[in-house]
């Protein structure tokens, strides 16, 4: 049997799923705040790429779930993120008009 290296953050039930298949595995429980943050950012990047490739609701829900975990891990209330979004919306607008900036003449 061959070993496949993953080295990535996985959902909580993945070890149980692997165990039920009778496969051997190794996990590490992350405890350091900064280390968890880094792995969450890596996971967000991974999920965004999967969403871009597959372009479906399931993958988009994974992106949102990782974002919500990042907020929770950093003790950021969802109201805070909505406030930040609202502020940026007021200052710079949203994406409602589907504007694609092609070029800007520099000074």
Model description:
The protein is mainly α. It has a domain at 30-92. 57% of the residues lie in helices and 0% in strands. The chain contains 4 helices and no strands. It has helices at residues 14-20, 33-54, 57-73, 78-92. Helix 2 runs antiparallel to helix 3. The protein is elongated, with a radius of gyration of 19 Å.
| Number of distinct beta strands | 0
Shape: elongated
Rounded mean pLDDT score = 97
Helix % is 55-70%
Q: Give the N-to-C terminal Cα separation.
A: 62 Å
Structural class, judged by helices and strands?
Answer: mainly alpha
> pLDDT below 50 for ≥5 consecutive residues: which ranges?
none
Give the SSE map.
Blueprint: H1 14-20, H2 33-54, H3 57-73, H4 78-92
Helix pairs in contact: 2-3
Features:
elongated, mainly alpha, 107 residues
In short:
By secondary structure, this protein is an all-alpha fold.
């Amino acid at each position: 049997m061959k070993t496949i290296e993953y080295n990535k953050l996985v959902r909580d039930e993945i070890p149980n799923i692997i165990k039920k298949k009778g496969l051997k595995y190794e996990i590490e429980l992350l405890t350091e705040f900064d280390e968890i943050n880094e792995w969450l950012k890596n996971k967000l990047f991974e999920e965004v790429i999967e969403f871009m490739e597959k372009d479906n609701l399931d993958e988009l829900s994974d992106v949102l779930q990782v974002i919500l975990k990042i907020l929770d891990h950093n003790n950021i209330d969802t109201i805070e993120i909505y406030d930040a979004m609202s502020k940026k919306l007021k200052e710079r607008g949203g994406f409602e008009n589907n504007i694609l900036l092609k070029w800007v003449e520099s000074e």
